[in-house]
Amino acid sequence: ITPASQGMAIALEAVTLNPPLRPIILSPPTGQASYTLTGNALRDHLASAIRSPVMWSNTITGMPKSNLGVDILVFIGPGTALANLCRKEISDGIKSASSLATAHDFETLAHELAT
Predict the structure, then answer these.
(1) Domain spans of the chain?
(2) In angstroms, what CA-CA distances link 113 with 24, 54, 93, 107?
(3) What is the pLDDT of residues 69-80, one digit of tens each?
(4) What is the pLDDT of residue 109?
(5) How confident is the model at residue 107 (pLDDT cuts 50, 70, 90)?
C-alpha cells in the first residue's frame, strides 16, 4: 500500500489543482469529514487516503449536519450501490444521489442541474 501512496503523491505533483467551485467532502482516517481542501492539502489527502480506512458512513451521515447546503450527491464510477445506499442512509435533506459512469451520465446530470 505504501508504494501506491507514494506513486499517487508523485503523480499528483504534476497536476494543477484549481480551487474547487463546490465543496469537496473528504473522508479522513479520523472519521470526521473535512471539506474543501485545496492545493497541497488536497494532494496530501488524496495520496494518504490510499492507505487509510474509508469512513464512508460517518462522512455521508454527517453531510446534512455540515451546514454546507449539501442536497445533491454525485458518485463517480461504475455501479449504483453507493448512491442507493446513500438514499437509504440519509434520505432527509437530500434531493438526489446519482452515479456517473459514462460521458452520457455526466451530460444528463449537467442538463438536470442547469434547469
Answers:
(1) 1-68, 71-115
(2) 17, 28, 17, 10
(3) 777 888 888 888
(4) 87
(5) very high
Q: What is the bridge-based pairing of β-strands 34-35 and 72-76? A: unpaired
Q: In angstroms, rounded to a whole number, what is the distance separating the alpha carbons of residues 51 and 48?
A: 6
pLDDT at 61 over 60: yes
Helix, strand, coil fractions of the chain, as percent rounded to 5: 45, 10, 40
Q: Is 70 exposed, middle or buried (0-12, 13-18, 19+ CB in 10 A)?
A: buried
Where in the chain does DSSP place strands (E)?
25-26, 34-35, 72-76, 96-100
The distance of Cα 5 from the centroid of its chain, to the nearest Å, equals 18
Residue carrying the nine cell digits 451546514: 67
Going by the DSSP 8-state scheme, the letter that residue 64 receives in this structure is G
51 contact partners, CB below 8 Å, separation of at least 6: 1, 2, 4, 5
Q: Does residue 40 or residue 35 have the better pLDDT? A: 40
Sign of CA dihedral 107, 113, 114, 115: positive
